[in-house]
Specification:
Chain lengths: ~400, ~160
């Protein structure tokens, strides 16, 4: 538990010039950063203990966005909880839906039709691009490179408009369903995706132009907030924060879910575990996402988008509006839920921030007995104090940013 | 029984309670007294090598003698196995040993368990509430006897008790 790093900012008593230094009264300064601060990406307070401008200790104070989602889950049925998951990480709702639906499917031991798997994977990768674009824009904005923000948000808007077309919402999507997805892509969307696959890769190079040789960006990311692989694992970091330290851990490869086993893609790994490596990983992951989407588009065959398990999955919408039995079924599935088996599962999904997991304990019946959400943002905050020690006060902001933190998910 | 479970049973014959495998998840229940030793074994034994902490969680079973269940889920990056370790604690003495010395990420995760379920962790460096305010007086929200609408002044809302 001892902090091994040397404190470079302290006056060395052995140094020959020390005696000639004036004796100043020094004491640590406490500074509250937040709860309202534009770069905390939500409502987060951090109590910074400062020695001069250096961080000695930082204590995150969380819970300003705590809404008791885990408690609410115990009071509703499995289907009813899907919209709650949107509000966890409100920047990337699709991924939360995906992780949750996957967990319930594991509990119910269901398989999802092939086409639904492809659609899910594609939308998840689109969401990953959105997440990384959002991260890149805001991180650069926090550091002081404002221009990138406009470029990344221009492209993010295109993708959000697709979600609008797909499910009628840009951010709180609720498009995934237990056993499949709500609806299939329409032709215009497929055309748009195909165009985007050619449009986007040059745009990634465009973002890099702004940052690659930007002295400020480099000075504030290279070598900042380094964490060794061993420490990153011990803290439970996941996603780009872990892979930045060179640990090969990506659930897309090792859990074999969705259409990922059928796609070829590589996992970029960092070397130094600093903010720059994590930035580089996110850039490379966007390129990999484009590859995955392209392969899914080519491989996808027509077929159903919802599993045929009438006791669990929702009936198709057109039948619900025309057929009395289907309507009753839909009503009962939502109000009473389906009968889940007794047992407990943990299912983790590789969201763009890290491993988003759901631990569900079921005692039978339509409601989960206990649902624990393993949110990457919360666990990443646990490493903040360790990673921020010894850095300047202005680096605190880039260190929040490097985890890609969203407080809705952190506080749940 | 799963090979890992067997190994734990052999190494900790008195502490081992049961092992379950369901939907591909391995869950091993141990006695509270040997929880830390089992976790240390999982962390340090070269065959286990569980260096990654996935989550720390808790479940409340109010009708049972040992009311609370504490759940640690650990993963091995090199061996690629995930193990869930569980232990039961009674309500009158709900203390378990902290695992912060094994996985540093446990610090926040255990604080959350303490905050939400009221299980205390011995040898935890900084056991305070984390999501609820420090001076929150109404108990532990994820316990089953905590009402969904909350406690205190919210009890006086008329519409909550209105049959309507």
């Amino acid at each position: 538990m001892e902090d091994q790093r040397e404190t470079v900012y302290k006056v060395d008593p052995e140094h020959p010039e020390t005696e000639s230094l004036p004796t100043l009264r020094t004491e640590e300064l406490l500074l509250n950063m937040g709860p309202q601060h534009p770069s905390t990406h939500g409502v987060l307070k951090v109590i910074l203990e400062l020695e001069g401008e250096r961080l000695v200790k930082s204590t995150p104070v969380m819970g300003y966005l705590h809404r008791g989602v885990e408690k609410l889950a115990e009071a509703g049925t499995y289907h009813q909880f899907i919209p709650h998951t949107d509000r966890l990480d409100y920047v990337c709702a699709m991924y939360n839906n995906f992780a949750y639906c996957r967990a319930v499917e594991k509990l119910m031991d269901m398989t999802v039709p092939d086409r639904a798997e492809y659609l899910r994977t594609m939308v998840a990768e689109i969401q990953r691009i959105i997440g990384h674009l959002f991260w890149l824009g805001t991180q650069a904005l926090d550091i002081g490179a404002m221009t990138v923000f406009f470029y990344t948000f221009r492209d993010r808007e295109i993708l959000l408009d697709w979600f609008d077309e797909l499910c009628g919402a840009r951010l709180t999507t609720s498009w995934y369903r237990i056993g499949g997805v709500e609806n299939d892509f329409n032709d215009s969307l497929i055309n748009k995706i195909r165009q985007f696959l050619d449009y986007f890769p040059p745009k990634i190079d465009e973002y890099i132009i702004f940052l690659e040789k930007n002295r400020i960006w480099l000075a504030r990311t290279v070598g900042v907030a380094t964490i060794s692989a061993e420490d990153a694992l011990s803290f439970g970091l996941s996603g780009p924060s872990l892979r930045g330290s060179g640990v090969d851990y990506d659930l897309r490869k090792y859990e074999q879910y969705g259409a990922y086993p059928k796609c070829e893609f590589s996992i970029p790994l960092g070397k130094n575990g600093d903010t720059y490596d994590r930035y580089w990983i996110r850039i490379e992951e966007m390129r990999e996402s484009i590859k995955i989407i392209r392969q899914c588009m080519d491989q996808m065959q027509p077929g159903p988008v919802m599993a045929e398990v009438p006791s669990v999955t929702l009936p198709p919408k057109d039948r619900v509006f025309k057929n009395l039995e289907s309507m009753i079924q839909q009503f009962k599935l939502f109000s009473q839920g389906f009968d889940a088996p007794v047992g407990e599962i943990y299912c983790g999904t590789e969201a763009h921030k890290g491993e988003l997991g759901f631990y569900i304990v079921s005692t039978g019946g339509g409601q989960p007995y206990r649902m624990k959400i393993r949110s990457p943002s919360f666990i990443h905050m646990g490493a903040f104090d360790y990673m921020a020690r010894g850095y300047m006060i202005s680096d605190a902001i880039t260190i929040f940013g490097t985890y890609d933190i969203v407080m809705g998910e952190c506080d749940r | 029984m799963h090979a890992i479970a067997e190994q734990i049973q052999q190494s900790f014959p008195t502490g081992f309670v049961k092992a379950e495998e369901w939907r591909g998840d391995l869950a091993i229940t141990v006695k509270r007294e040997s929880l830390h030793d089992v976790c240390e074994f999982l962390r340090k034994d070269p065959a286990m090598d569980c260096d990654y902490i996935v989550h720390v969680s808790s479940v409340d079973w109010p009708d049972e003698d040992e009311r609370f269940e504490i759940v640690y889920e650990v993963y091995s990056i090199r061996k690629r196995h995930r193990i869930r370790i569980k232990a039961r604690v009674p309500e009158h003495d709900c203390v378990v040993d902290s695992m912060v010395d094994l996985w540093r990420g446990c610090e926040f995760m255990e604080r959350e368990v303490f905050d939400m379920m009221g299980i205390r962790f011995a040898n935890h460096p900084d056991l305070r509430r984390i999501l609820m305010p420090d001076d929150y007086p109404e108990g532990y929200p994820l316990r089953k006897d905590f009402p969904l609408q909350g406690k205190g002044w919210r009890d006086t809302f008329d519409f909550l008790n209105d049959p309507a």
